[in-house]
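Sequence in, structure out.
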Amino acid sequence: MSPSVPGPRRAPTRGRRAFATTWWGQAWVAALENSTLDAGRLSRGRTYARQGMVGPVTIAPGQVNATVQGSRPHPYRSAVQLPVLTDAQWDTVLDTITARAAHLAALLDGEMPAELVDDARHADVPLLPQPTELDPECSCPDWGYPCKHAAALCYAIAATIDTDPFVLFTLRGRSREEVLAQLRARRTAAQTTFTPPAPAGLPAAGAYAAWTALAEHTPLLPELPEPAPHATALPAAPPPDTGLSTADLERLMADTAARAARLLTGDTTSLHLTQYQDALRIAANTPGPEWFHRLNQNTGAKPTAFARLTRAWRHGGPTGVTVAEQPHTPDPTAITAARTLLTEALTEMTTTPVPLRAWRNRLTLTNHGIQLRLGPDARWYPYRQDDDGDWWPAAPADPDPVTALTSVWQQTEE
C-alpha cells in the first residue's frame, strides 16, 4: 500500500475539466461522469472537492480511500474501487513498455504515453478506467451511485493522477516500485539472453578504397520515370459482402501507388506508422465525410478526438499528431527566445498587453484562445481554443514562432 497523499487538497474552482489538465486525468473524470445519470450528485461532489472536504487519500491496488466531510459533524468513509489487471495483462503492459524506451522515459517524466494506452487497449488491456469499472462505496445513507461524497473523492484524486501516471498503475494492481523493478528485470534478461557477436570490422581506409574501386566499375542506374497516376479500372467488382465499392478500391490503389512513389525517393515515413496513424493519414488526405466516419468507426476512437488528430496530421503529419498528444519539456532557452520574439511582435499587433503563459513546450496567449506548441522538429504548431475549452490545430507549423502566431492571429481577427 502506498503512503497517504497529503490532504485536504483544494481543487481548482472553475469548470469540470479544472480537476484534471492532462488527457489521462480527464479520462478518469470522464469515466466517473459517464458512469452515472445523476448530474446533481456529481455537481455536489465537485463542490465538496473544491471546498476541500476530501481528507487525506490512500491509494492501494484496486481502490482509493478517504474520509469526506459532509453536512453532518462526522466525516464519511468513501472509497472507489477499480479492477486490478491479471498477471497476463500485466505481462502485456510491461512488454509494451519494454519495447519502446520512449514509454518509460515519458512515464518517469510524469507523462502517460498515448501510444502505450492505445497498444494496451488493442491487446484488450484497459489501463485507463472504463465507466463500468469504477465502483464507488460510502458509509453515508445516500443511495446515489455514486453519492456526492464518493464523487468528491473521484474528482479530488484526478489532480494526483494528473501529476503521477503511476497512480493508475497502482490502482491497476502494481506500485511504481514494482513496475520499475520488473522492467529492470526484463531488460537484464534480454541482455543476457542474446549478446550479438562483435563484428570483425575493417580498417576505414581499406573499406573506402574497396568502395571507390567498386563504384568506378559500376554503371549508373537510369533515372526513374515520374510515376503516372493510376487510371486502370478494376477487372472485376468487389464481392458484395465486403462493404467496399469499386471507387473505394480504386482510391486505395491510388494511395498505394503514391506511397510506393515516395518510397522510391527515399521517404520511408509511412513504413513506421501504426494502424491508427495510418487511418489518420488516410482521413487527412481523403476528402468526404463517408471515409472519415468509416475510418473513425474502425479505429474505435471518439469522433472528436479522431477529428482533432486528423487535423493535426493535415497540418504536421506524424509529428503533428505527436505534438497534439504528448507535451514534452524542451530546452528552456528555446522557450525564452520565442517568448521574447512573440512579446515584441504582440506590441506591434495590438495596443492591449497580451500575457504569455509558458508550460513545458507550450506558449499560451491568455484570454485570446491561441497557443503555440514547440514540436520535436523545432517547429511551432499553432492551436486555437474552441468554445468547449478544447485546443485544435489551426495552421501548418513554422520554424519561426512569430510566423506561426501571425497565421492563427489572422484567423481570430476575421
